Amino acid sequence: MPKRLQCIIPGCDATIDGLTEEQVLAQVETHITRDHPDLELDAQATDSIRANIEDVGDE
Q1: Total domain count for the chain?
Q2: At a CB cut-off of 8 Å and minimum separation 6, what does 29 contact?
Q3: Across the strands, what pairs with 30?
Q4: 58: confidence class by pLDDT, cuts 50, 70, 90
Q5: 23: exposed, middle or buried (C-beta count within 10 Å: 0-12, 13-18, 19+)?
Q6: Which domain holds residue 10?
Q7: This prediction's pTM
Q8: Phi-psi group of 11: left, alpha or beta (phi > 0 → left; psi -120 to 50 → alpha; rest → beta)
């Protein structure tokens, strides 16, 4: 089932889609590097991101 993440940073309206959680997380790394370079993607941040990834049904 496809996955979606709305960026968890307040004020950022980025949406990241992927077929798997791993694909979403890979795109999150790119997004953070490009749009939030002051943030560190540590274990705590990754856990928070994982908790916010949602399944996307047929739209």
Answers
A1: 1
A2: 41
A3: none
A4: low
A5: middle
A6: 3-55
A7: 0.85
A8: left
